[in-house]
User: What shape does this take?
Amino acid sequence: MTELKTRPSGASVEAFLQGVGDEGRREDCLALLALMRRVTGAEAEMWGSSIVGFGSYHYRYASGREGDWFLTGFSPRKRDLTLYIMAGFSGYDDLLARLGPHKTGKSCLYVKRLADLDLEVLEELVAASVEHMRGAYA
Assistant: This one.
């Protein structure tokens, strides 16, 4: 089996975030750092070179493939701020409708700026996803 490239790297979260060139994006990252720390009760950890993850869970597929992944996290990508909502978005239509401008992928929430979002709704979404993941992978 191939080993995942994205795993805890031991790199400094603070140094990574201070290296975010755009001041607005850096401030958004610091706000997400506080929000996700509060929701998970976990300290931030670098996963690979560009993802800030919180907590972890162990998964095992029917194929036998298994590994560890973070419960939630974010990455300040060039185009968007990417938030990882590992439970996906099924069942969260009401929250997404109230969140503000965003796009979604399978487990990725893409936003331009936190100022455009309802941060209480964002926190509720992150908390619901983390609760779901903890229940599913306890």
